[in-house]
Write a structure and sequence with these properties.
The chain is an alpha+beta fold. Helices cover about 20% and strands about 20% of the residues. Strands 14-9-12-16-22-18-20 form a seven-stranded mixed sheet, with no helix packed on it. β10 and β11 form a beta hairpin. The radius of gyration is 25 Å and the shape is globular. The chain starts with about 25 loop residues before the first strand and ends with a strand.
Length: about 475
C-alpha cells in the first residue's frame, strides 16, 4: 500500500494544533540526525523492542548512513522528527482512509521534516525527508517527488513491471492519491533510469530545478533543456528489458553496509544490519542457512538483475526453527548483491561443481532435521539446462529426502541410470548420516517460479 497524497505543512497540521505546531507525541530519544516521538495514544506494548529507544534510533541512523553515501545529505541541519503513531492519527494527518485495524503506511509532512508512521525505518518517507535536506525549497510534481522516494531502497518486496507502459503525459499529471499509483510505479522507474544513466549528483541537480506544475508541455520543455534529451526517448528506453536483466525493475540499494560474513559462524541479527552485501565471490559458492518461515532471497544492488529466491516447489510448512532452510548460492556474474538480514550462517567454498568429484563437502547444521527443511540452489547466471551441477551434503542424522524432479541423490558419484538416476518425479528416499551426493539437471526440473529465479528448491528433508 502506498501513502496517500502528501499534505502541505499547514492544511493537516492545523487539524491537530495549528500550522506552526509539531505532530503529537512524546520525545523518547534523540540521535545525531533524528528525534523519536511516540504518540500518547499508541499502546507501546505493540511495538517490538527494535522500534523503541536506542535500537530504534540506531535503525534510523543506519538508514541515514546508508542513503547518505548516495544522496550526500548535509550535516548540521535540522533533525528529522520521526513519529510513531496510531493508525487513526496517521490516517488523519496523511489524508488516507483507515481500513479496519490496519495501520496506514504513513507520510512525511511536506516542508516540516516530520514523519508520521506506524513502524520504522519507513524508507519511502525517509527518502522524502532526505530530499528536502538535499533540495531545500524544491517542490517538483508528484510524479518526480514520489518516484524519487521509490527509487532508492533496500529489502523491497517487488519491482516495477517493465511491460506496464502508459503515456508519460498521463503519469506526470497524476497526484499521489490517484488509484493507478503511476507516480510511484512509473515515477520510480523514471528516477532510477536517470540515476543509473546520468548519476545521482546530476539527478539531484535536476530535482532541485524541476517545475511544480503538472503540465506535460512544461515538464517536457524543462526536461529537454536540462538533459538535452526528450522525455519520450527516456520513456521508451526505461521500459526496454535488457539481455540478462529481469523484466521487473527494483529499487537501487546503496549497498554500503557490511559484507556477509562467510566464516560459518552465527551472524548477528540487529538493526545495524538490515542487509548484508555480497561482492565478487571469486568463483566460490556460498552456503547459507536461514529460518524456514521465509524464503531466502538475493537482491541486485542496482535493482536490474532478477531477484534470486527460493521457490515453493514443496509446500511451505516448515517450522520457525533455526537453520530450517539451506541455499547454495553460485554468483558467477560478479554483480554486487545483498541478502536481507534473515541469514543465520554463511560459509564460502567450492560446494557447487561441474563434477561430483570436484565438490567441497557442505555440512548441514546439526539441528537441520528437527523439522521439514529445504535445500535450494540459486545461480546467476542460471545453470545451462543440459549441464549437470553437483554438490555433496554432509547429513548429520538419518532421515528422509525427497528430491525435486531432475535431481538425483547418491551415496557415491555413480549417477548412471542403473545406479542413482536423475528422475523427473519426486520419489522420497532414506538417507544415512554422512555424505550425500546430489546431482541437478535444470532441464528436468519443473518449469515454475524457480525456473526464472535461479534453480530453486532441489531437496526436502524430513526426519
Amino acid at each position: 500500500m502506498f501513502p496517500g497524497e502528501r499534505p502541505s505543512s499547514c492544511v493537516f497540521l492545523v487539524l491537530i494544533a495549528g500550522c506552526s505546531a509539531s505532530l503529537p507525541g512524546t520525545l523518547v530519544g534523540e540521535s545525531a540526525h533524528f528525534r523519536l516521538f511516540i504518540d500518547p495514544d499508541l499502546d507501546r506494548s505493540t511495538l517490538a523492542p527494535s522500534q523503541q529507544g536506542q535500537p530504534a534510533l540506531d535503525a534510523l541512523e543506519t538508514d541515514w548512513a546508508d542513503k547518505q553515501t548516495m544522496l550526500q545529505m548535509p550535516e548540521g541541519k535540522r533533525k528529522i522528527d520521526y513519529h510513531l503513531m496510531t493508525g487513526g492519527h496517521i490516517a488523519e494527518i496523511c489524508n488516507v482512509e483507515l481500513v479496519g485495524t490496519k495501520t496506514p503506511p504513513g507520510c512525511e509532512v511536506q516542508g516540516t521534516l516530520q514523519i508520521a508512521t506506524g513502524d520504522l525505518p519507513q524508507q519511502h518517507e525517509l527518502m522524502h525527508a532526505y530530499m528536502e535536506l538535499v533540495a531545500p525549497g524544491a517542490l517538483p510534481i508528484p510524479f518526480l517527488v514520489e518516484g524519487t522516494a521509490q527509487a532508492i531502497g533496500c529489502n523491497t518486496d517487488a519491482g516495477t513491471d517493465l511491460t506496464y507502459d502508459i503515456p508519460w503525459q498521463q503519469a506526470v499529471v497524476e497526484i499521489a492519491s490517484n488509484t493507478p499509483a503511476d507516480v510511484y510505479v512509473e515515477g520510480g522507474l523514471f528516477a532510477r533510469y536517470l540515476i543509473r544513466t546520468q548519476g545521482i549528483e546530476a539527478f539531484v541537480r535536476y530535482y532541485r530545478q524541476a517545475p511544480g506544475r503538472r503540465d506535460p508541455a512544461l515538464f517536457a520543455d524543462n526536461f529537454s533543456a536540462f538533459w538535452s534529451m526528450t522525455v519520450a526517448d527516456v520513456w521508451t528506453a526505461m521500459h526496454v528489458v535488457q539481455p540478462g536483466a529481469a523484466n521487473t525493475d527494483d529499487s537501487i540499494c546503496p549497498c554500503s553496509l557490511s559484507a556477509l560474513p562467510t566464516d560459518g559462524q552465527p551472524i548477528p541479527s540487529d538493526v545495524a544490519h538490515p542487509y548484508w552485501t555480497i561482492g565478487d565471490t571469486q568463483g566460490a559458492s556460498i552456503g547459507v542457512t536461514a529460518p524456514g518461515i521465509a524464503p531466502i532471497s538475493v537482491h541486485d544492488c542496482e535493482g536490474v538483475a532478477p531477484i534470486l529466491m527460493t521457490d515453493d516447489l514443496f509446500p511451505n510448512n516448515t517450522s520457525a526453527i533455526a537453520d530450517a532452510a539451506v541455499a547454495i548460492l553460485q554468483l558467477a556474474d560478479g554483480r554486487p548483491r545483498y541478502v536481507p538480514a534473515t541469514i543465520s550462517t554463511a560459509a564460502a567454498g567450492g560446494y557447487l561443481a561441474d563434477s561430483c568429484a570436484g565438490t567441497a563437502p557442505y555440512a548441514l547444521p546439526a539441528d537441520f532435521l528437527s523439522g521439514a527443511v529445504d535445500v535450494s540452489v540459486l545461480s546467476s547466471p542460471p545453470a545451462a539446462e543440459n549441464v549437470r551441477q553437483y554438490l555433496q551434503l554432509q547429513v548429520p542424522v538419518a532421515g528422509h529426502v525427497t528430491p525435486a524432479g531432475g535431481v538425483g541423490t547418491c551415496a557415491s558419484c555413480d549417477f548412471s541410470p542403473g545406479s542413482c538416476a536423475l528422475l523427473p518425479l519426486r520419489i522420497p528416499v532414506t538417507v544415512a548420516p554422512g555424505p550425500l551426493n546430489v546431482a541437478v539437471l535444470p532441464s528436468q526440473m519443473p518449469q515454475g517460479v524457480g525456473a526464472s529465479l535461479g534453480t530453486g528448491t532441489i531437496l526436502r528433508f524430513t526426519n
